[in-house]
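Input set for joint prediction.
Command: fold jointly, output tokens.
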Amino acid sequence: MDAEAIKRSLEDTGLRCTPQRYAVMAFLMETDQHPTSAEIFEAVNRVDPRSSRATTYNNLRDLVQAGLVREVAIEGRAARFDAKGMRHHHFICDRCGNVEDIDWYDLPSPAPGSLDKRILRESEVIFRGLCAKCAPGGASRQA
Amino acid sequence: MDAEAIKRSLEDTGLRCTPQRYAVMAFLMETDQHPTSAEIFEAVNRVDPRSSRATTYNNLRDLVQAGLVREVAIEGRAARFDAKGMRHHHFICDRCGNVEDIDWYDLPSPAPGSLDKRILRESEVIFRGLCAKCAPGGASRQA
DNA sequence: ATATCACATTAGATATAGTCTAAGTTCTCA
DNA sequence: TGAGAACTTAGACTATATCTAATGTGATAT
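tokens >
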């Protein structure tokens, strides 16, 4: 996605396209690494040092509220962030904490009645388990 | 589950059945509220003040490691804990952060290949969305 | 043009959640 | 009964994230 498209997607949600906000969004769209806020802060300031930690947090909050970014909480670790592009599920490794995207596929609804009145957010779910590196026989590097 | 059964389940995993640890486990088994560590600490000490915060955290860590308890991370909030009884999925409300159990049902695996070498943990997943209270028309109390 | 005002950024203080340390206690088993 | 392992504890510490108050920036009206 080009600069103009990012700018438009920001403004479509009522957010100004500031250099700092743009940098966060652009970085999230070009990576598939599900970075933490600290990693985003570093990446943005590596290119052109011009965003504070507070602004990085502010912008991440705004982008999540605007529905452009998803935050993924992980037990005992910093939250990770993911630009919402195409619908997809997530997989989090129980051992190293890495987050991976899983291509979208339809999941059946829970037993009728058990989710009455609840609105599932597009039925995107989080799977847990051991990633390729951490599974027995894998390279098993701790992240 | 009675006291003896809790004691046995602890010792089966190699953990001593201390009063503090027993209290944490018993509280988690009798509630369906997915409490935070602070709530567990308070509940335990309300009955008989005899556990420190550090011990509560230590025991929660031990119980999670032993596979008797599940920790559920939530963006921007304290982790919540859940005694693993019968297999079940989880639902987390995007608005109030409440966690609900969803009765177990089989989910189809992701598209073949997309999880190569990954090991799904029993295919229990976390759904996201709006709970009954927070959905439009619901009572909408913030938790 | 420029005044105004809402939106945005910033450094640093503060809050919250959770971990570590070092000392003491209790259990187990030889 | 003594030794070592497992456990508990208060309080210090760390990590993550939010808040505050001052400053900066850009859109709009006049």
